[in-house]
Amino acid sequence: MDEVLVADGLTKSYGDVEALSGVSLSVAEGEVFGLIGPNGAGKTTLIRALTGTTTPDGGSASVLGSPPVDVDRQRLGLLPQDFRPAGRLTAHELVSYYAGLYDGARDPDDVLAEVGLADTGDTWYENLSGGQQRRACIALTLVNDPDVLFLDEPTTGIDPAGRRALWTLIDDLADRGTTVFLTSHSMEEVERLADRVGLLNEGQLVTVGRPDQLVAEYGGESRLVVRTAGDADLESVSLPASLTGDVTDDGLTVYGVGPRQISDAVDALDEAGVVYESLVWKQPGLEEVYLSLTGEQFEGARPAAAAAVGGEP
Ligand SMILES: Nc1ncnc2c1ncn2[C@@H]1O[C@H](COP(=O)(O)OP(=O)(O)OP(=O)(O)O)[C@@H](O)[C@H]1O
Question: Which residue range or ranges hold the ABC transporter domain (predicted)?
C-alpha cells in the first residue's frame, strides 16, 4: 500500500520544551491512524508539522509524496483542536463559505446532513450547542472531499450518539480511501476507529501497532475486581493454582481470570465466606496500554506492594 504520510526524525522545540524529539512514522492510504498520549505529549505539534502549519527544527515530513507546505490544499482536511469559525454565520453559510474556497466542492446540504446538522443549518454558529459546533467544524473539513484528513480531538463535547454517528462517518471515509490521522483522549474511540495506534509521550513515539497487538503486548491480564463488604478475611481465600490475587484497599483483585475462570474465583470467595458488594470482570484494553506505558496506574492494576493471596497448594 502507498505511504501517504511519512514523518522521519521530526524534532520541534519551543524554548526549553522539546515538543517532538525525533518522531518517525508512516501511514498508508486509507488507513486510520490514532495518535494518543498525555496532555502536552506533542500530538498537536506533530499534526502541525505534518500539515505544514509549523516548521520542524529537524527531520522531514511528506504528505502524498510532497513536503507538507507544497501539498495541494484541495486534497487535505484539517480540524484543529481549538477551531472557532465566525459565530454570526449559520452552519449552512459557514459550510457554503468554505465550499467556495475549493474547486468542485461538495454540496453543503449533503455535508451538513452527513454530520447530523441537516435540521440546524439555519442556526448561527454561536447559538449551536458545543457538540453541534464541533460537528459543524467537522463539516468544514469535509467540503473539499479530502484525500487526507487530520482530526485533532474531533469528538470532544459531542454526545454519545453523535460520537457514534461520527465514528461511522470516519469508517465510511476510510472505506472510500480517505487517510485519517486523528488524536483523541478517548481510548474507546481510538480502539474503535484506528487501524494502528501510536503512543506519544514527552515528544517521543513510544510504540506503534494495531490496537489488539498493543493490548496483547502491554495490556496485562484479565482480572476480577472484588469489592468486599465489612471485614472480610481475604488472606484465607484459596484461589485455584492458575489464578493469583492481591488484597487492595477495598477488596481483592484476582489476576489471570479468563471467562471460564470467573466461576472458580467466585467459588473460592464463597468457600472462604467472603461477602462482596460488587464483582467486576475487566478485560485489558487500550486504556491499560496507555496507562502502563505512560507509567500511570489504573483501577484494578496490580499494586506494587500488596498482600498476596495464595493459590491452592
Ligand atoms: N506555539 C507554542 N509555543 C510554545 N510552546 C508550545 C507551542 N505549541 C506547543 N507548545 C508546547 O509543546 C508541548 C507539546 O504541545 P502539544 O500541543 O503538541 O501537546 P498535545 O499532545 O497536543 O497536548 P493536548 O493533549 O493537551 O492537546 C507542550 O509542552 C506545549 O506547551
Answer: 5-227
| Ligand 1 pocket: which of 18, 23, 43, 202 to mutate (most atoms within 8 A of CB) | 43
Helices 286-293 and 211-218: crossing angle in degrees, nearest 10, is 60
Angle at 39 between CA 34 and CA 43, to 5 degrees: 40
pLDDT at 217 over 60: yes
| CA nearest ligand 1 atom 3, residue | 14
86 CA distance to ligand 1 centroid (A)? 25
pLDDT tens, position by position, 28-56: 999 999 999 999 999 999 999 999 999 99
What is the average pLDDT across 130-154? 95
Out of 1.10.10, 1.10.3470, 1.10.357, 3.30.70, the CATH code matching 220-309 is 3.30.70
Contact residues for 266 (Cβ-Cβ < 8 A; gap 6+): 279
Q: Are 163 and 193 in contact (CB under 8 A)?
A: no
The atom number, within ligand 1, closest to the CA of 45 reads 18
Atom of ligand 1 nearest to the CA of 200: 21
pLDDT tens digits, one per residue of 223-281:
999 999 877 788 888 998 889 998 888 899 999 998 899 999 999 999 988 888 999 99
